[in-house]
């Protein structure tokens, strides 16, 4: 089973994402801060991380995950509220693989993540 971590300061966003992605077969963990997320990653690295662009320290978190042993294998989605090129490029430079738009939409998450849940 693929491990997926949602890193977002909003309890609601994390709960909605966890519900949808758990139903797709992911083992979902949550972190409310960049600090909490990196501590969790040092213990058990997820296969996939969804990181909110609005989170304090989000770019540093991406870089810190990449610096971990096996950190380059994590698929990182930088979660943005709007398709702002400057924000997206900052995420890409930090090491994000791809982007997601907030708020989470069941149809989009299902389309993006259905095949990834069974890829392990």
UniProtKB/TrEMBL annotation:
Record PTM 4-aspartylphosphate, positions in chain: 52
Spell out the Gene3D superfamilies in the cross-references: 3.40.50.2300
Q: Which SUPFAM superfamilies match?
A: CheY-like
| One Pfam family it belongs to | Response_reg
Q: Name one GO biological process term.
A: phosphorelay signal transduction system
Q: Enumerate the UniProt keywords alphabetically.
A: Phosphoprotein, Transcription, Transcription regulation
Response regulatory domain location? 3-117
Q: Which InterPro entries match?
A: Bact_response_regulator, CheY-like_superfamily, Sig_transdc_resp-reg_receiver
**Name under which the protein is recorded:** Response regulator
Question: Which species does the entry assign this protein to?
Answer: Ciceribacter sichuanensis
């Amino acid at each position: 089973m693929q491990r997926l971590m949602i890193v977002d300061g909003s309890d609601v966003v994390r709960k909605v994402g966890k519900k949808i992605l758990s139903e797709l077969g992911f083992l979902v963990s949550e972190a409310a801060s960049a600090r909490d997320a990196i501590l969790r990653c040092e213990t058990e690295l997820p296969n996939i991380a969804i990181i909110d662009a609005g989170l304090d320290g989000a770019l540093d978190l991406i870089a810190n995950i990449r610096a971990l042993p096996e950190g380059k294998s994590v698929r990182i989605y930088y979660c943005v509220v709007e398709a702002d090129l400057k924000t997206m490029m900052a995420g890409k430079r930090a090491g994000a693989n791809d982007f997601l738009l907030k708020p989470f939409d069941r149809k989009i998450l299902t389309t993006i993540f259905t095949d990834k849940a069974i890829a392990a």
